Amino acid sequence: MAVHESTREARLAVFLSTVRRGEIRTGVVVSIHNFGVFVTLDGDASGSHSGFIDCAGLSWRSFDHPSEIVEVGLRIRAEVLDVDFGRGQVKLSLKATVPDPWRRYAATVHVGEIVAGTVTKLVRIGAFVRVSDGIEGLIPCAEPADHAVTAPEELLSEGEEVRVAFAHIDFERRRLLLSLRQAQAALRATLGLHE
Known about the structure:
The model has no long low-confidence stretch (mean pLDDT about 85). This protein has helices spanning about 1-15, 100-105, 180-190; strands at about 25-35, 35-40, 50-55, 75-85, 90-95, 115-125, 125-130, 135-140, 160-170, 175-180. It is elongated and about 80 Å long. The protein is α+β, with helices and mostly antiparallel strands. The chain is about 15% helix and about 35% strand. It has a five-stranded mixed beta barrel. The chain contains three helices and ten strands.
């Protein structure tokens, strides 16, 4: 048993020495957990679960559990982020192999532009609005009305369709700040109405 284990470890060490950061590797998902996914990479003769993708590396979109993104037995392509010889594991990213849809979307819009959206979630700091598939922005709680608003529920409800303007696009932090007030003012101006 000990000889078999040392042979397996030696094979894994040889395999890991062939893996380079930044390259794309293929493999098969072998187990899914709350914290991430284990993958057996092609070429790993040791039979180990040599790859790991944490939740942040699975997808650009939001999800509650990794099983929403992958399933056991799924063949994947992932980018190598790091090789951990101590753990005998390759850290991988599935989302690094596809363009960031947020950046693609944000590059097509500009501050002041008005779009339709759907309120997806009300939180203490404001309301999240889906402006495109998988893309959300935030209307801050202090923004929506001319009078003091202490909770977004005072003006909006989940599922409500709204027109919003882009108030700020933060590429570094991947955030969209939205404004109901600016969209309403623009609509009034278009219709020739005054405050």
